[in-house]
Each structure stands twice: as C-alpha cells, then as structure tokens.
Amino acid sequence: MRFDVLTIFPNILGSYLQESILFRASSSGQIEVKFWDLRDYTTDKHRSVDDTPYGGGPGMIFKIEPIYKCLIDVLGKKVVESKAQGQRQSKISKNTKVIMLSPRGSQFDQAKAEQLASMDQLILIAGRYEGIDARVENLVDEQISIGPYVLSGGELPAMVVVEAIARLLPGVLGSPESLHEESFNPGEGQTDASSRQIIEYPQYTRPEKFEAAPGISWQVPEVLLSGDHKKIEEWRRSQMK
User: Fold this and answer.
1) Phi, psi angle pair for 66, to nearest 5°
2) Where does residue 143 rank: exposed (0-12), middle (13-18), buried (19+ CB within 10 A)?
C-alpha cells in the first residue's frame, strides 16, 4: 500500500519510518511512504505557501496553488482536472483516495482505519497555519480529524493514519493474533459499531511483585499466575471496558 504525504516539513516525519513496525513494513515492501515538500511547488523566492485571509482575521491561510501543483505530480494532470470538475472517480482508481487532515473532518477511528486499509493508495494533505484554503476541498475525497483538540499542523495526524492502517495490513504485525485481542477490535460474534468501543484488558509482565515505595507493593493478579486458562479468559473478559 502506498501513502503520499503532502507537507512543508517532510524531514520531521522521515525518522518515524526508521524504527519498529513501520520500518519493517517499509523495508519489506508492504507499504511505501513518500513525503512531498509543498514548498517545492511555490513560485516566489521565499517559497511562501501561506497568505492572509480574505475578509480579515487572525493567522495565515495555506494557499491552494502548492497543493494543486503537487497533486498533479502525484496523480497526474488529467486526474486532478477531472476531480476539479467534480468527476471524482472518472480518471482515478476507486482504490485511491485524497484525504485532508482537518478538524472539520469526520473522527478517525478503528472502523475507518479498517475501511481505508482496503485502498491501494492514500494521499494525505497535512496543512499548517490557521487553516487551508477551502477551495482545496474540491480536490479531496474525504476530510479526517484525529480528535477534538488543536495541533500546529497535520503531520502528526497523517502519521497516526499511516500507522493505524499499516498495522492492519497482512504480515505487518509479527503475530496476526495481536489484531484480534486489542482495544477497539470487536469481540467474537460482535460486529456492531458499539462493540468496537471495548478497551483491551489490563496486561502484566515480570516482576510478579513490584515495590513502589516503603510498604507499598503492586502484585500481579493471582488469576494470571494460576495457569487456569478458562479462569484467565473469564478474568480478561470481566476487565474489558
């Protein structure tokens, strides 16, 4: 699966792909992530990607031109022009989506990650400043928010989306069972949306007893030390939230 991230800070994200799960997925060819520097698509000597808002107001607004030109390099001119004309799927594969990270977007969750994991390519637009020129919405298929709080830009949300989706792809995780026993995954026989809100049971590892302070010790629940798999399963289910 391919991810294209449009940003003005490509260097701050590259290191995230050099470790752990995303590194293994990238090295094995299961995912490909490319960062596009939107400043490369400016025309002035200052490489400006923002300007003041029409109608006044605080902050600066991300301009449409750099994003439009970059999308042409990513998707091709005919595809971008057809999207601009409202023909969203006439020239672009149904397995490719352009997504803008925005607080105006729908809440990103596990169900959305699973849906997007079926795509072949995702183009993620990571904005900055007070916002992105609203005309960019004519070029995107969807807007996504990772939560009701404010960040300085869309780079971290973009990587949240990349990792949440990548770990769902076959072979990315070392143990496939990890996907079945984790938070927000519906339990056996459960398929409704509410079942996805279940939080995984508490986990423990060695030491069996931890001395936190004089007279204060934290013990692993006895049931987990019992070796009784039935009781352990019952305890785990009772601890899910």
Assistant:
1) -60, -40
2) middle
Which residues on neighbouring strands pair with residue 7, listed in sequence order?
37
For residues 162 and 185, state if they share a domain.
no
Sign of CA dihedral 137, 67, 162, 82: positive
Whether omega before 103 lies within 30 degrees of 0, making that bond cis, reads no
**Cα separations in angstroms, 116 against 21, 54, 142, 152, 169:** 18, 35, 11, 25, 10
Find the Cα–Cα–Cα–Cα dihedral 6, 142, 30, 75, rounded to 10°. Answer: -60
144 phi/psi in degrees, rounded to 5: -130, 140
Whether residue 112 contacts residue 165, with contact meaning beta carbons closer than 8 Å, is answered with no
Name the domain count of the chain: 2
18 and 125 in a common domain? yes
pLDDT of residue 221: 96
User: What pLDDT, in 10s, does the model give residues 135-160?
Assistant: 999 999 999 999 999 999 999 999 99
Sheet holding 50-51, edge to edge: 50-51, 61-62, 131-132
Q: For the chain, give the longest Cα–Cα distance.
A: 71
**Range(s) of the domain holding residue 79:** 2-176
Helices 20-27 and 155-166, packing angle to 10 deg = 70
Q: What is the pLDDT of residue 193?
A: 44
Tell me which of 123, 146, 176 is where a domain ends. 176
Check the CA dihedral 131-133-135-136 and report its sign. Answer: negative
